[in-house]
Amino acid sequence: MKKIEAIIKPFKLDDVKEAVLKLGVSGITITEVKGFGRQKGHKEIYRGAEYVVDFLPKIRIEVVVNTDMVARVVEVIKETAHTGEIGDGKIFVMPVEKAVRIRTGEENRDAI
After folding, report:
1. What is the pTM of this model?
2. pLDDT of residue 51
3. What pLDDT is attached to residue 9?
4. With 90 as the cut, is the pLDDT of residue 42 above it?
5. What is the 3-state secondary structure (H, E, C) of the chain?
6. Contact criterion met (CB below 8 Å) for 2 and 73
């Protein structure tokens, strides 16, 4: 099993969610986050004063899938979240040692 974590632009959430669920992913976790990468934020003007917004709003999507689905899920996220502009985000893939469904006690593949 692998955990796929993607940081994307907020307006891409609905498209990415629909695309991932169409692949048969059974669950998804969404978190509103703030951060920056190479873009390093931007400057804004409020009531005549300029200030730097260095933590930009992003969405973190987390899914746990069987290893054989990883390539397809990553590709769908990459294609769907892509705008070609700076700040499109990142995708991380990590191993998952164990998963347990609390309600039933099911483990690993049965739990996801």
Report:
1. 0.84
2. 67
3. 95
4. no
5. CEEEEEEECHHHHHHHHHHHHHCCCCCCEEEEEEECCCCCCEEEEECCEEEEECCEEEEEEEEEECHHHHHHHHHHHHHHHCCCCCCCEEEEEEECCCCECCCCCCEHHHHC
6. no
